[in-house]
UniProtKB/TrEMBL annotation:
Residues 82-287 form the Neurotransmitter-gated ion-channel ligand-binding domain. It is found in: Postsynaptic cell membrane. PANTHER family: NEUROTRANSMITTER GATED ION CHANNEL. Residues 1-21 form the signal peptide. Residues 295-403 form the Neurotransmitter-gated ion-channel transmembrane domain. The chain crosses the membrane at residues 288-311, 323-341, 353-375, 463-482. This is Gamma-aminobutyric acid receptor subunit rho-1.
Length: 484
């Protein structure tokens, strides 16, 4: 038992000796630091004092400044005093209208639609843009020592007042939400607010196709407040026409973008009143080269192809008739194909004028051969009747006794009545000589009168070779001078 007490007493002495040694060592180090602090310069003393404080705290690393976002007192909602105000009302309610400036940056003009589908009549455009609003709400002012703004995402937008803008005559629109809602809110210490969002909108565009495809279209995107009249909200372009910015890379396959410009007007609704409305206007000019290749050039070739029949023999019916029918059907196909992709408007378009005039030229070439064939048939019938009336003249092998026109003295007339020149070429004209007997006073005395009749069956073809091309060239000159 005595041995156990001795062991406990020895352990107690060892622990007491270790504590005394530790305190003596700490007291000695404190004296040394105090002496060095007295002897050193002021910056050195400051550094050593910092080192001493760090040593006293038991860590060689200085503490960082506190993060105010982690403090429950400095939350953004409390800093902006959102819970202290009713943001369902506009800023300055009961006073003058709040001015809201707007500027727009057009990111892309995606498509221009003018086609007719089985379910809809499309005359619209699709545009992606950055829409920015500027106003001042003193309820959102906050104290700041460095005058820096605070930026928030779309979560705070749902808790404060923002202008209720909408797109007039829009068919579809949405705010982009990849990877999060493309909405930004920036608040200045004095309460000035910038509200920006990225929107894609499809809006209606009233197009005039009277000069299609040589037309120029003007479309507009209209922005307006839905609830607040001009007495509550004054909507304006922040920097005038400079408020609209566009990307230089914007291009369309079918149109050339000529210009963008802004305007502002008042819109009146009989039930609610007057509203400020902003317009984004842009002018588009259609590229003509596509239609030259697909419409105008084929139609011109068909008209020129129909003229080939003027150089084909009038007796070649199997050659001239199919040629005329083929050109007429081809023109009908071109007209149908163009109108199938166009809106069913009630007025005549420029392309309709060109195609239908070309169709008339092709159709007239078919009628021209019908006229030639008919006159040829009539002429042959008259020739048979004349030969039946001249049995003596027709039986003569040599028609020398007949009275001939002076320009055909050197030729012969065949038994069929066709004029044959010395070189054997058949001419277009025929000379038919008629001997008519008449009795004057008595049956014994007869006088014969010789009448020459000239018939030219190729005159229509000859004139058509000049009239048709000349008239079509004149039409093209007038057409392109008016519509180009």
């Amino acid at each position: 038992m005595l041995t156990v007490h001795k062991m406990h007493f020895s352990i107690f002495l060892l622990l007491w000796g270790w504590v005394l040694c530790t305190e003596c060592r700490a007291h000695r180090q404190g004296k040394e630091i105090h002496e060095v602090y007295k002897k050193g310069s002021r910056p050195q003393r400051q550094r050593r004092e910092t080192h001493v404080e760090a040593h006293k705290q038991g860590s060689p690393i200085l503490k960082r400044s506190p993060d105010i976002t982690k403090s429950p007192v400095t939350k953004s909602e409390q800093l902006l005093r959102i819970d202290d105000h009713d943001f369902s009302m506009r800023p300055g309610f009961g006073g003058p209208a709040i001015p809201v400036g707007v500027d727009v940056q057009v990111e892309s003009l995606d498509s221009i639609s003018e086609a007719v589908t089985p379910t809809s009549f499309l005359q619209d455009f699709t545009m992606t843009l950055y829409l920015r609003h500027y106003w001042k709400d003193e309820r959102l002012s906050f104290p700041s020592t460095n005058n820096q703004s605070m930026t928030f995402d779309g979560r705070l937008v749902k808790k404060i007042w923002v202008p209720d803008m909408f797109f007039v005559h829009s068919k579809r629109s949405f705010i982009h939400d990849t990877t999060t809602d493309n909405v930004m809110l920036r608040v200045q210490p004095d309460g000035k607010v910038l509200y920006s969002l990225r929107v894609t909108v499809t809006a209606m565009c009233n197009m005039d196709f009277s000069r299609f495809p040589l037309d120029t279209q003007t479309c507009s995107l209209e922005i307006e407040s839905y609830a607040y009249t001009e007495d509550d909200l004054m909507l304006y372009w922040k920097n005038g026409n400079d408020s609209l910015k566009t990307d230089e890379r914007i291009s369309l396959s079918q149109f050339l973008i000529q210009e963008f410009h802004t305007t502002a007007k008042l819109a009146f609704y009989s039930s609610t009143g007057w509203y400020n409305r902003l317009y984004i206007n842009f002018t588009l000019r259609r590229h003509i080269f596509f239609f030259l290749l697909q419409t105008y050039f084929p139609a011109t070739l068909m008209v020129m192809l129909s003229w080939v029949s003027f150089w084909i023999d009038r007796r070649a019916v199997p050659a001239r008739v199919p040629l005329g029918i083929t050109t007429v059907l081809t023109m009908s196909t071109i007209i149908t194909g163009v109108n199938a992709s166009m809106p069913r408007v009630s007025y005549i378009k420029a392309v309709d004028i060109y195609l239908w005039v070309s169709f008339v030229f092709v159709f007239l070439s078919v009628l021209e051969y019908a006229a030639v064939n008919y006159l040829t048939t009539v002429q042959e019938r008259k020739e048979r009747k004349l030969r039946d009336k001249l049995p003596c003249a027709c039986s003569l092998p040599q028609p020398r006794p007949m009275m001939m026109d002076g320009s055909y003295n050197d030729g012969d007339v065949s038994e069929l009545g066709h004029y044959v020149s010395e070189n054997g070429d058949k001419q277009d004209r025929m000379m038919v000589q008629l001997a008519l007997g008449s009795e004057r006073g008595s049956s014994r005395r007869k006088n014969q009168r010789y009448v020459s009749m000239r018939i030219d069956t190729h005159a229509i073809d000859k004139y058509s070779r000049i009239i048709f091309p000349g008239a079509y060239i004149l039409f093209n000159l007038i057409y392109w001078s008016i519509f180009s």
